[in-house]
Amino acid sequence: MRTCMIVGAGKGGQALLNILRETNMMNVIAIVDCNLDAPGIHTAREAGIAVYSDWNVVLTRFEIDVIIEATGNESVFEEIRDKREKHTVLIPGSVANIVLNLIEEKEILIDTLQHQSKQQEIILDSTHDGMIAINVDEEVTLFNRSAEKITGIRKSQARGKLIGSLMASSMLPRVLSSGQPEVNQEQLLPNGRKIITTRIPMFDEEGKRIGALAVFKDMTAIEEMAQEVTNLKSIQSMLEAIIQSSDEAISVVDGDGKGLMINPAYTRLTGLERDEVIGKPATTDISEGESMHMRVLRTRKPVRGAQMKVGPSKREVVVNVSPVIVDGRLKGSVGVIHDISELHSLNNQLQRARQIIRTLEAKYSFEDIIGNSEEMTFSIQQAKLAASTPATVLLRGESGTGKELFAHAIHNASDRKYNKFVRVNCAAISESLFESELFGYEEGAFSGAKQGGKRGLFEEANGGSIFLDEIGEISLTTQVKLLRVLQEREIVRVGGSKPISINVRVIAATNAKLEKRIMDGSFREDLYYRLNRLPIQIAPLKQRKEDIAALANHLITKINQDYGRNVEGITPAAAEYLKEYDWPGNVREFENVLGRIVIHMDSSESMIDLHHIPSLLSEQKDAEILSVERTPEKTLSQLVDEFEKKTISQTLELYDGNKTATARALGVSLRNLYYKMEKHGIEKSSMQ
């Protein structure tokens, strides 16, 4: 066998090496390439063929019969030609390139044919109909997956076998012989299944018979489809019965907006009978407003809570309409109509339920407290420690710093989280009712008392936590009773004498200087020490300005949900500018300002920037808020009154007239705020 050396181990050289190895025409004893990482070098090493970086070495060591130059470099070819032995055959690199191209074309053609064959096989296997084909020798050439399932014969067993040996009852040989198709024929298979089959002969382009094909369906599947149709009719009848018996007024239209179905509740609500609606346009029943059926058919999107007037009596209703889409096609729409008076009643019930839930449940956790500053981190650590103990907690900090948020989080992190969380604003309840609200009362305790008496908020919170906000505002009389609760863990109802044991965790909060109140005699020292067992100081926003950016992003997410906006965040420049303001109203004021910014932003804007921030944050505004018109003719008392009136008015405006928030921001009780407003005539002036 001739010896061969290949010079060049690229793709061409590798392809030639593979061909010579497969055909065994020549003995390749060496492959040469200056790049020892070339593809052909690796192939040669795996085959045990010597590799070299210099072909001169091979010529001196071995007797070479054939040299194949596969580098494509003309100078290499000429150098080898000059140095080879006369009997050595030299094949140029152009031949190698031709061979490589032929091989690549062959591989592409093979891949294409295999891909097409695979696609055809996937398509045939995907159909629900069984398919069997035979050639002129009655050998099975096609046996798809559905045929495998229906006949119980494996595809691997069927291919290449005579159809008669697989299925003696097959009529494909008859069709092959006669050349005539047989359509929708019944046939009983060897496994006992009955099928409906169509058999056709197959011809080539010249009309020569080349085989026969059978396409068949299991009768069981057809019977199941018939049963499904029956079931669908039954379901339709049931749905119609449900719609007709429903107390909700229901209207159904088809894809063209023509009335398809109504129920008796619809007639009772609108006053329209079936013949006035069925087959008529969807606008027939509308007295005032747009047809929601037509909007839904146009947009393919549901509509919720649309108000309109329907029927001859112009009944005020709210409608919910949804599209009916089957297999991606719009078939119509369904509307449910509610009487507005019923909705008002339900809304009142919902508000009452929300009030109860707001009173009895804690909504926030430590994850809702935003801040990585040292001050806030320390406060959170203290609060988490407090949550793990049953001790009384006193939350201290300026108004708007988030004391209530901490109270929620402490309750939700404690072992009482599945019990009630009752919130009490001590400044919002009048002094005459405060004691009875807190401790309850017995029947006949005072005129107007409920029969059987009433449980107080401490009893409501039994087993859970009670949050006493603005604890510094309670009267001395109530302080005595609260001290007894903390000491003895029992309460006595107003008008009662029997003590009632309770198990309540007290979380108190104040923005007042209790130590100063103790000094002036308005707060009991012994109660202070009972409350101050686990004090937590919450830093104002001006002391943790590094939290402003994160806090802004958190509040923007909440504001987006409240107002249906899609603001993504705040620019670094705007965040830095906001840090320059001291935020006397703390987080509450910060949220208020962000809310106003988002409301006034254009819907196309996604980031809060410097130009969005109102003038409230400028030094000029700060100076204006603190400015008082000073004239030599005015006394100090008059100047103080003017400053007080101006400050209260501006703070009320800042908090959109919310007096409780204003009182907290100014550090006064709600009663004191009302007194000052009446003194300065602020309420009257704002009404003019």
From TrEMBL:
SUPFAM superfamilies: Homeodomain-like (SSF46689), NAD(P)-binding Rossmann-fold domains (SSF51735), P-loop containing nucleoside triphosphate hydrolases (SSF52540), PYP-like sensor domain (PAS domain) (SSF55785). Coiled coil: none annotated. Keywords: ATP-binding, Nucleotide-binding, Transcription, Transcription regulation. InterPro entries: AAA+_ATPase (IPR003593), AAA_lid_NorR (IPR058031), Homeodomain-like_sf (IPR009057), HTH_Fis (IPR002197), NAD(P)-bd_dom_sf (IPR036291), P-loop_NTPase (IPR027417), PAS (IPR000014), PAS-like_dom_sf (IPR035965). It holds the Pfam family PAS. This is PAS domain S-box-containing protein. NCBIfam families: sensory_box. It comes from Guptibacillus hwajinpoensis. Residues 116-161, 235-286 form the PAS domain. The keyword Transmembrane does not apply. It comes from the Bacteria. The lineage of its organism: Bacteria, Bacillati, Bacillota, Bacilli, Bacillales. Residues 369-599 form the Sigma-54 factor interaction domain. The keyword ATP-binding applies. CDD domains: AAA, PAS.
